[in-house]
Amino acid sequence: MVRIVNYQKRQTEEGKAFFVLEIQSGIEMVLSAKTGQYYATAKRANISSTFDEETCKALIGTDMPGNIRKMDSEPYEYTVKETGEIIMLTHRYVYQPEVNSPSATSSNKGLFENDFATRVENFSRSSHLAEMSI
Description:
Elements (H helix, E strand, L loop, with lengths): L1 E10 L5 E8 L3 E4 L6 E4 L2 E5 L4 H7 L3 E2 L1 E14 L6 E12 L4 H32 L1
Antiparallel strand pairs: 1-2, 1-6, 2-5, 3-4, 7-8
Helix pairs in contact: 1-2
């Protein structure tokens, strides 16, 4: 399972705005090569979407079947936010939907669609109530 934890506004090369959903895997314990101690971490990835900003906000906290996996890529530079250090990476993390069997996929699809529909309905209802109180 992965969870939608945030969203970001991006622009295409043509300047058109769109939103990506930030997803995060479950907790993982990793052994530090430097200290020899374990630390907790989680993999993160982004998924492009066709949603507007309000829908993206409503989706935060939604669980989706699947996982985040490491995928080899062409080398690229990455700046470590905390230190400003620029490093060269040759991998990315990507979302991989859960595809065990046709029946599992359709039942998971239904769970996600029901959760999504509930979140959008609740968001719409709260927005409508807010408009009525103005």
